[in-house]
Amino acid sequence: MKIAMPVLAIIFIFLTNSVFAAKYEPIVGAFGLKLGDVFDVSQAIIKVDGKESTTCSVKPPQPDANYDNYTISVSKADGRITRISANYKVSSSADKKKLIKEINDGLLQRYGRVKSAGSASSDTYYVMAEEAYVAYTCYIYTGYTGVIIFSWGSTKNNTNKKIDYYILDESKSADLMIHSIKMAVMQQQKDQKIAQEKQDKERLKQEYIKSHSALSENMKQAILDNKIMIGMESKIVEIMWGSPEKINRHVGSYGVTEQWVYGKAPNAIYVYFDNGILKSWQE
Q1: Would you say the pTM of this structure is higher than 0.70?
Q2: CA-CA distance, 196 to 190, in Å (whole number)?
Q3: In terms of CB atoms within 10 Å, which end of the chain has fewer, N or C?
Q4: Separation of alpha carbons 280 and 259, rounded Å
């Protein structure tokens, strides 16, 4: 049995339009991606359009073995990277506490001080430096993948918001981004499955035609056009239309009669076979 694992989402928000004091290390990006660089969204593996930015699933130039599912946010205003993210899992509360301590220690060493802005549902911390700040928020989810998110900007244009709430708003926005990416990945997988099934169906149709050389030209064309025709075998009908929702079978001294039901009433199509050969249908 597969057990859902609690997962820690760690959201780092870095706003860096202002210049840090000399003792602070500047934030330039991660995984070979640079904040502020122009990015062509057509190169993304998956794209999710938002109001102000496009979230892109990408393969970074310098991936890290500890992370996967890399994503970036690209501003619609100027096409520049405003956020970089990568998934990271932890398996227990003990691992969470250890990781938080490591992050705190790292921020203290690089940026000088850490301030708490926690809420009931999360642990939020940030480091202030003049008009800019560095922050991260820790969440626990079941079945969710943790994510590290970097952003750049300035508090100057957000004077109407308290900094604590601004950070939390950014965190919620990041959470929605994660969900959007997951939905996009699921849709991509669904589309790939449909495309593969279509390819398989076309291959099976060609193989059937090739192995039944006695078929009339009209029958061959009907198969290629995905249209049923009197005299077809039940095998090729199933290849073209897939398995029916229901099969009603009657066995008698004369053989086997089947009614295949495609769709649901009142739009169902009923296809009738005698001993595996299509005799009629009803729409």
Answers
A1: no
A2: 10
A3: N
A4: 10
| Domains (range + CATH), the chain | 6-187 (no CATH), 213-282 (3.30.1450.10)
How is residue 203 written in tokens? 């291959």
Residue whose C-alpha is closest to residue 35's, from 126, 122, 116, 134:
134
pLDDT confidence of 91, banded at 50, 70, 90? low
- Read off the pLDDT of residues 194-232 as tens digits, 9 standing for 90 and up: 999 999 999 999 999 999 999 999 999 999 999 999 999
Backbone Cα Rg of the chain: 29
> Each residue of 226-278: pLDDT tens digit?
999 999 999 999 999 999 999 999 999 889 999 999 998 889 999 999 999 99
Q: Please state the length of the chain.
A: 283
